[in-house]
Amino acid sequence: MTINQNQIAVVGAGTMGAGIAQVSVQAGMDTILYDISQEFVERGLSRIRGFIQRNREKGKLSKEEEGEMLSRLRGSLKLDDFRESSIVIEAAPEKLELKRDLFRQLDAICVVETLLATNTSSLSVTAVAGATRHPERVLGMHFFNPPPLMALVEIIQGEQTGDATIQRALDISRRLGKTPVCAKDTPGFIVNRVARAFYTEALRILGEGDVQPKTIDNILKGAGGFPMGPFELMDLIGIDINLAVTESLYSGFFQEPRFRPSSIQQRMVLSGNLGRKTGRGFYTYGKN
Known about the structure:
Blueprint: E1 4-11, H1 15-26, E2 30-34, H2 38-57, H3 63-71, E3 73-76, E4 85-90, H4 96-109, E5 115-118, H5 125-129, E6 138-143, E7 152-157, H6 163-175, E8 179-184, H7 191-208, H8 213-222, H9 230-237, H10 239-252, H11 263-271
Parallel strand pairs: 1-2, 1-4, 2-3, 4-5, 5-6, 7-8
Antiparallel strand pairs: 6-7
Helix pairs in contact: 1-2, 2-3
């Protein structure tokens, strides 16, 4: 049995998973989007269809091109459908044991030539690969939110990841129209480690002074030239996801004070105010 070089499979139909699947179909790849329930799968597929439809309405695509893209996309509730994919990209929640369990299953299902990539933003690729019999084909492939717009992809080599695996992942990333960079398997890799100061210092300023999130965002956008302020960006990413990444770095660097999570974020997560996806975070969002 050989792999289908033109097929990419994505585990997780949430914001990141659906975004990666959209990138894949737009690049001409046959794409399978998996999740644990039909509701989740349909929500992800609907999200992709909506984006592609709006691109056609804006004149960026023809009707024929839209139809061709959508014909390459399908949903699935069975990991068995991934058996002959060239690569499986996991975009499940940032929980190590969940990812290790998924990779254990994928390792048993997929042919040995299939690459197994985790989209983790901060967890150890080596730890994820440790659940498999073929860790040489496991790597990190970290996309950024939103995947259709962000060019960068971090390619992370675990302790046992093969050099050939990394080269194939670099080739696939470029085929998807992305700009890949290689990173070591350290907490937060490159971007999230650098970006912690952007979030944690903004949260410290918020907690220590009589200043609003909008004021901090406007200053950083106006004076610093950032396209989005830290609070706008946390709302976009998801405050729960941003907190989980910070906690992972804090643990990974043995409670290094500069990575200490904020109690402000913790309270917001406990209250269910997670940003745009719940309609309320540091800002309030309406239907439009």
